[in-house]
Amino acid sequence: MRKCIRCGEEMKEGCAIRVEGAGYGIVMSTNEKAKIKGRIGIPKVAICPKCGEVSIYVENVEKLQ
Q1: Do 4 and 50 touch, CB atoms closer than 8 A?
Q2: Measuring CA to CA, which residue among 22, 23, 20, 40 is closest to residue 31?
Q3: Do the bridges between strand 12-15 and strand 44-47 make them parallel or antiparallel, or are there none, so unpaired?
Q4: How far, in Å, CA of 37 to CA of 17, rounded?
């Protein structure tokens, strides 16, 4: 459960983020130069239903270590 950093409300997790007009989406990686190696995963989004705060996160943080 994620809490909003602005108002403390429980956030709705598991939402998606998409870049309109681009077919590639967003890729998060530990290595800026590597095309595939170092990929962390697809970013997830949590949205606060009270104030609208948006939080981007990854579920597989073990790939950062």
Answers
A1: yes
A2: 40
A3: antiparallel
A4: 22
Q: How many CB atoms lie within 10 A of CB 46?
A: 19
* Contacts (Cβ under 8 Å, ≥6 apart) of 3: 9, 10, 11
Model pTM?
A: 0.72
The 10s digit of each residue's pLDDT in 4-34 is: 999 999 999 999 887 777 666 676 777 766 6
CA angle (9 as vertex; 5, 18 as ends), nearest 5: 70
Per-residue pLDDT, averaged over 26-54, amounts to 81
Q: What's the Rg (C-alpha) of the chain?
A: 14
